[in-house]
Amino acid sequence: MDKKKVVTPLVCHGHSRPVVDVFYSAITPDGFFLISASKDSTPMLRNGETGDWIGTFQGHKGAVWSCCLDKHALRAASASADFSAKIWDALTGDELHSFEHKHIVRSCAFSEDTHLLLTGGMEKVLRIYDLNRPDASPREIEKSPGSVRTIAWLHSDQTILSSCTDMGGVRLWDVRTGTIVRTLETKSSVTSAEVSQDGRYITTADGSSVKFWDANHFGLVKSYNMPCVMESASLEPKHGNKFIAGGEDMWIRAFDFHTGEEVGCNKGHHGPVHCVRFSPGGESYASGSEDGTIRIWQSNNTEQETCGANVAADVTHQIEKVHITDEDKTDQKVAVANN
């Protein structure tokens, strides 16, 4: 029997509580970046390729449920259980603005043109903030049928998709009218919704299935039953020929997009996997877990692994070994994780 190749992920420590969201920036002149949200209240920014820690955004007083970067990776946003969403300067770590809500904020997303911030949460209200006028009152869309779990922009910021924590389905909203124009039906609550990089597909994870929807005509393209309850799924952005999913069994599984056949399985986390995302070039992907770590896996090795043979080893990136430039040192507002 051929010896199976053991895949060694980059293991990113620093969070003291579960990691519940990870988000990759687009590729910028300085590379690409990875931001993570955790129940420890401190979003963290890392080099997306190496996993090296860059900085920690300090200011929230409750669990951070969602985080994102704008397409230039110049600003970060975070949504928290402290009833606020915050905008940060991703270069200095400064808090630029805090948008107060009346309940827990579960999700946030920058518009494609970077001028708007969308939030949603337990209030059952979608809010659109004009970042050019951050002190102005947001536009509110108040007809969400349930507490908002996930949100995303599509169709060049003309459509919003959202899912709810307490019911199935993905709602598609016309931004101009603020009304639901279509519902993508699922039996279970959708815990992850991703618009593909080319804008063709919406990838959803709902319980024990992963589905792919046509992002323009909204038909169901593919639906695959999963071996366990999956919390998150992501489609490979460059070729679109495979996808990953992670969930309660602590493994990150890779599947063939066209057939649904499992083509790889990575072990290493010590708790359920809450979030998975491909890097913008598809060469790697990140996973965040209940165990408080982020793991970055090389995508090109996936087809050589099997669940029965792969035992992932740790390559720990200790925060104290991260190189910080002199420019970074001059800004005292970039918080250093005290672990």
List keywords for this structure.
339 residues; four-stranded antiparallel sheet; 1% helix; disordered C terminus; Serine-threonine kinase receptor-associated protein; WD40_rpt; repeat
What does this protein structure show overall?
It is a single chain. The chain is mostly beta strands and 339 residues long. Helix content is 1%, strand content 48%. The chain is built from one helix and 29 strands. The strands form seven sheets. A five-stranded mixed β-sheet has the order 26-27-28-1-29, with no helix packed on it. A four-stranded antiparallel β-sheet has the order 2-3-4-5, with no helix packed on it. β10 and β11 form a beta hairpin. The protein is globular and about 50 Å long. The N and C termini lie far apart (44 Å). One of its GO terms (biological process) is mRNA processing. InterPro entries: WD40/YVTN_repeat-like_dom_sf, WD40_repeat_dom_sf, WD40_rpt. This is Serine-threonine kinase receptor-associated protein. WD repeats lie at residues 57-98, 98-139, 266-307. Belongs to the WD repeat STRAP family.
Principal-axis shape: globular
Low-confidence stretches: 301-306, 308-339
Structural class: mainly beta
Distance between the termini: 44 Å
Which strand-content bin applies to the residues?
Answer: over 45%
Query: Looking at the chains present, what oligomeric state does this protein adopt?
Result: single chain
Order of helices and strands: EEEEEEEEEEEEEEEEEEEEEEEEEEEEEH
Work out the helix count. Answer: 1
Secondary structure elements and pairings:
Blueprint: E1 10-12, E2 19-24, E3 33-38, E4 44-47, E5 53-56, E6 64-69, E7 75-80, E8 84-89, E9 95-100, E10 105-110, E11 116-121, E12 126-130, E13 139-141, E14 148-154, E15 159-164, E16 168-174, E17 179-189, E18 192-195, E19 201-206, E20 209-214, E21 220-225, E22 230-235, E23 242-247, E24 252-256, E25 262-266, E26 273-278, E27 284-289, E28 294-298, E29 315-317, H1 326-330
